[in-house]
Amino acid sequence: MIDEAADASTEARYLRGDLGFEDALREVTGTDVGREFFAQILHSLSDRNPAAPPLSDHDATLLDQAGFVEDPAAAATVRVGRDIRMQELIRNSLSIAEAADRLGVTAARIRQRLGDGTLWAFTSGRNRLLPPAQFTDTGVVPHLDQVVPLLAKDLHPLTVQALLTLPQPSLTVEGQPASIVAWLSGSAGTAADIEQARGVITAAEWESA
Description:
By secondary structure, the chain is mainly α. It has two domains: 4-91, no CATH class; 93-208, no CATH class. 55% of the residues lie in helices and 7% in strands. The protein has helices spanning 4-7, 10-16, 21-29, 35-45, 57-66, 72-92, 96-103, 107-116, 157-165, 180-186, 191-208; strands at residues 122-124, 127-129, 168-173, 176-178. It is globular. The N and C termini lie far apart (54 Å).
């Protein structure tokens, strides 16, 4: 008896030729991917691309633990996943002008805050982009300016994004782990609250050292 659920899976339909690769990837990632995006992935994966970034220590460790270090398909999967997350971050981030509009200040003020480290941006091409995790609908996440300056300048944008937005075991709200952004948004901004959030950043710096 044929397992109808398995037979209808994205993988099964792709293998039968019922689904193109772009459509299959869009289906499993929820990301609207196009040819320009795939061209960037191909460039990243190309052996002829000397600028192709190596796997991060974190990704390499995960592959090693899973026994996939020598498996090129596994390495490619990790890299493609990373590229997809990076493209999503670029797509959703704010330009300096957009951040200025969001905060009701001038672009010069945003640049000043980037210079003093109270906002975080990364470079994409010729642009500096500010990830949306820092912002509410009307301003900046409360008290974030006391945490962001601790972030190392050489951290990968995806690492910083994860650090700010993923639940942290040491930060709990109603018994559940909370992200730094959620913790700061819900806190009263006491010295103890801020120090707990800062502690997460400090611990991450030690782990990555």
